[in-house]
Amino acid sequence: MRIGIIGAGALGGTFAALLARAGHDVEVTARGAGLAAIREGGIRLSGGYGDAHATVSAGETLAARPDLVLVCTKAQDAATAISAHAALIDGVPVVVVQNGLDGVATAARLLPRSSCMGLLSIIAANYTEPGTVRVTTPATSYLGRGDGPADAECVEVARVLSGAVPVVAVDGFRGAQWTKLIVNMLNAVPAIVGESVQDVVDDRRLRRVVAASMREAVRVGIARGIRFGSLQGLGDRRLRLFARLPLAIGQVLPWAMRVRMGGVPNLGSTQQSLRRGQPTEIDFLNGAVVREASAAGLDAPVSRALTALVHEVERRGEPLSRERLLADVPV
Ligand SMILES: NC(=O)C1=CN([C@@H]2O[C@H](COP(=O)(O)OP(=O)(O)OC[C@H]3O[C@@H](n4cnc5c(N)ncnc54)[C@H](OP(=O)(O)O)[C@@H]3O)[C@@H](O)[C@H]2O)C=CC1
Ligand SMILES: CC(C)(CO)C(=O)C(=O)O
């Protein structure tokens, strides 16, 4: 199949290399040093899915109309990236590979003739240098849309992608997006203090902050009437129980996620943006929790403080101390 990948960064590069290895005709978009490196030497993937070296067509925009598109930009870049391709890809099935709650709706608004789906990935991939990606945690990805059962097209696209990398079609995708949003409460604290997810969760005080942001986000989801989808052993029943637990016990949740992540240090996608001097996706992660809380007539002080601190690190260009974070976040 001819597959176009918009945004060959950490996850886009991973999918591109694995889909090309599985025999698909892959074209990617990239920019600057990334584009030059991919044109010169292809995409080099290492880590959890083994080594892959994929020679793929690359440009600033896709040149040929594909059979399937994966949009793999950060949430804040999705509208610009999709708009630049609207004339070419409207009508082509699109999978938005993205954290946050908005990706599928953004694509559907900009591509009215396309059938748009979302993909939630628990893979941890580090874009180590232009054209080079290291997968630190391989994991199944979840594909779907809306609130109902997985439809035939989602099942078929998941089957096609699964020939390269494990993907399953899920029922109740919106609930699964919320569960992933809870997982993404792992992103902010490492990004603020400049440490790996594993080191943060190993620190009792920081783990408490991560657990507090997760519990706050689950409580907001419940107030918004969300039924959390099942991802990686986490589901509605466990998250509702977690929402009622005192933090001292609730800290087992980030701990369990850290154990699943394995031993290879994972920075998380938010910190990777900071290290490249790029704006982060935080307004679509903890920022989404703040907006959803407000829509439910609630406040989300932990996520609000973490969002502000990530923006401060964006402006400063360097991490803040653990003490500063602990002083600012109301836990
Ligand atoms: N990395 C990970 O481990 C995981 C990431 N995710 C999610 O997957 C999504 C992608 O993340 P990730 O792969 O880390 O992101 P990256 O920042 O590594 O890659 C994004 C890519 O999109 C490109 N891009 C940005 N703006 C545009 C634009 N306007 N037009 C075309 N291309 C553009 C970037 O190019 P440039 O570098 O030139 O800006 C970059 O190549 C995010 O929602 C993230 O939260 C989910 C699970 C794990
Ligand atoms: C699952 C996790 C935390 C993997 O790193 C992720 O989604 C991210 O980095 O954005």
From TrEMBL:
<feature type="domain" description="Ketopantoate reductase N-terminal">
    <location>
        <begin position="3"/>
        <end position="147"/>
    </location>
</feature>
<dbReference type="InterPro" id="IPR036291">
    <property type="entry name" value="NAD(P)-bd_dom_sf"/>
</dbReference>
<dbReference type="InterPro" id="IPR013332">
    <property type="entry name" value="KPR_N"/>
</dbReference>
<dbReference type="Pfam" id="PF08546">
    <property type="entry name" value="ApbA_C"/>
</dbReference>
<keyword id="KW-0521">NADP</keyword>
<keyword id="KW-0566">Pantothenate biosynthesis</keyword>
<dbReference type="InterPro" id="IPR003710">
    <property type="entry name" value="ApbA"/>
</dbReference>
<dbReference type="InterPro" id="IPR008927">
    <property type="entry name" value="6-PGluconate_DH-like_C_sf"/>
</dbReference>
<keyword id="KW-0560">Oxidoreductase</keyword>
<dbReference type="InterPro" id="IPR013328">
    <property type="entry name" value="6PGD_dom2"/>
</dbReference>
<comment type="pathway">
    <text>Cofactor biosynthesis; (R)-pantothenate biosynthesis; (R)-pantoate from 3-methyl-2-oxobutanoate: step 2/2.</text>
</comment>
<feature type="domain" description="Ketopantoate reductase C-terminal">
    <location>
        <begin position="173"/>
        <end position="314"/>
    </location>
</feature>
<protein>
    <recommendedName>
        <fullName>2-dehydropantoate 2-reductase</fullName>
        <ecNumber>1.1.1.169</ecNumber>
    </recommendedName>
</protein>
<comment type="function">
    <text>Catalyzes the NADPH-dependent reduction of ketopantoate into pantoic acid.</text>
</comment>
<dbReference type="Pfam" id="PF02558">
    <property type="entry name" value="ApbA"/>
</dbReference>
<dbReference type="InterPro" id="IPR013752">
    <property type="entry name" value="KPA_reductase"/>
</dbReference>
<dbReference type="InterPro" id="IPR051402">
    <property type="entry name" value="KPR-Related"/>
</dbReference>
<comment type="similarity">
    <text>Belongs to the ketopantoate reductase family.</text>
</comment>
